[in-house]
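Dear colleague,

As promised, here are the two records you asked about, laid out in our usual form so they can be pasted straight into your sheet.

NAME FIELD: protein one
SEQUENCE, THEN STRUCTURE:
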Amino acid sequence: MKVKKQILIVDDVTTNLKCLGEILRNKYSLSMAKSGEQALSMLTKVKPDLVLLDVKMPGMDGYETFEKIKEIRGFEDIPIIFLTADTENESELKGLRLGACDFIRKPYEPEVMVGRIERALFQDEKIRESKRAAMEDSLTGLWNRNYMQTQIDSLSPDTTGTFMIMDLDNFKGINDNYGHVVGDEALVSFAKTLSRFVHKDDIVARLGGDEFAVFLNNCYGREMLEERVASLIKEVEQELCIIKNDNSASSVSVGISAYPFDGKTFIELYNNADKALYYVKSNGKSGFHFYDASEKYSYLKANDEGAIDLSDLMGGIDEGDEEEGPFKVEYNSFKNIYRFLKRYVSRTSSKIQLILFTLKDLTMQKESDEGHLLKAMRTLEDCVRGTLRKNDVSARYTNNQYIVILIDADEKSRQIAVSRILDNWNETNHDQNILLKYDMEEMLSDKEERNE
C-alpha cells in the first residue's frame, strides 16, 4: 500500500484549516499549526513532504516563518507553497524570491489546489532523485566520496565517530587474472558485505577504484571494534573465494581514525586513516591498524604512485648536510632553502611549518593517461600561489606532490593556510576522481630532534 505524503498546513484561521482539511485529508496525511511559532515547534517532531503556509498571520508572518524553516538543518530544500488572499503581484514576487515553489490564492479551487500540490511534490521528488544519483556510486549503489565528505564536514562538534578506509589488497591481480567483469563482481560483493557491516545511521561509500570508506556514528570500544573489523576482513576474503572459485582470495586492509580526536573534517580523518592503512600494507596486509598521532608513519612507501611522505622527504634532504661555515643558498634549489631554514630555526626562536600536499588518483589510471593528474597539479599550484605570503616557499616535488614551507608561522597559522588552500581547491577542482591529501609538521632544529 502506497504511503501518503505528509503535508503541514499553517494558517491562523480555524475555518481555513477546516476547509483545507476537507479538500486534502483523503489524499494526504495532514498536520496543522495555527502560527509560525507552532509550526516550527512541530518540525522538531515531524518532517513533512510539503508545507502550505499562509502569508498573513499575526506575530510571525508567513515570510518570516518561511525563512526560519529554511534555517533548520534538513529542511533547506523542503517545498513550501504560500497561501494568500492578496491579489497583488508584489507579495507573490516576494515569496518567489525567497524560494517558494508556488502560490495558491484564496478562495481555494479544490482541483487547482490538488494539482499544484501534486506538481510541487513531483518536482521535489525528481530533484531529490537527481541529487541522490549525483551522490551515488553507479557500480555498487553505495554513496560516493562527495556525499561522505559533505556529511562528515557538517557533523556537530559533540558527535563522535569511527572512520575507516579500506581496499582490496590484490585487486589488480583479480582484474589481470580474471578480467574486469569479475573485478566488478568483487567490488559489488565487497560493497554488499560493507552494507551488512554498518547500521542504519552509519555511512558506507566507495571512494574510487577498490577504495571504500565507512563512518560509524559512534566511537565504539576498541575491543569491540577490533572484533567487528576482524570479522569483516574474514567475511570479505570468504566472499572473494566464492567469486573467483579458488582459494587465492584477495585480502582487505583497513586504516582507522576517530572523530573528532584524529580529525574534524573528512580530509583530516582520511589523511590519518590513510597513514594507518599503509602501515597495514607495509606490514603484511590483510589486517587493520588504528591511527596513533605519536607514531611516525611512512605511509606512502607502498604507494603505486611513487609518492613519499613528509618524514622521508625531510630525511632525504637532511642527508649529507655536514658542511661547516657560511651556508650558501641557491634560490632555485629547494634543498638548499630547506637546509638554510633548518639552520635558521637552530639559531632563532622562529617557527617554520612544512606541508606536503599529495594528489591521489582514485580511478587508478595508467601512466599513459596522466593528463588529468597534470591538470590537477596545475590547479593545486594555483591554489597554493593564491594563498601563500611572499616570504613563504613552495615547490613541486613529484608529479603528484607539492611541498610548502611557511616562514615565521605557528600551528594556528599553518592550519589557516591549509584551510584556505583546501577551500580554493574545492572551488576550482572539477575532477572528482582526484583526492587532495596533506601531511604537515613543524620544522625542528637538530637539537630538538635529538631530544625527541
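NAME FIELD: protein two
SEQUENCE, THEN STRUCTURE:
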Amino acid sequence: MQIDIGVLEKLEKLSALKVDENKKDEIIHQLSSIVEYVENLNELNTDALDASFSTLSGGTPMREDVSIDKSEIGKKILSHAAGSEDDFFIVPAILE
C-alpha cells in the first residue's frame, strides 16, 4: 500500500485530526515505514500454525471474571468527546 497525500488527507478526516502542513512529508514517511514493516509479515509461512497457538503449555491461564461498576469512568471519557449523546460518541459519517 502506498501512503500519499490523498491517503493522509483521508486519515485526517477519519481521525478528526489536523496535520500541520510542514509535518505532512514526515508523517507520510513514518506511515509508509509502518506499512512496509507490517507487509513484511505477509512473507511468514503460517500454514502449519494453529489459530490458537500458544507458547504456554496448557494454554492461557484464565482469571475469574469479576464485574466492577465504575460508570464514572465512562462519563469522564465522554466529557472530553467532541460530541456525545445517550452515553455514545457522536462522530461524522464515514460512508459516502
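A couple of things worth noting about protein two: Strands lie at 84-85, 88-89. The CA atoms of residues 56 and 62 lie 12 Å apart.

Best,
R.
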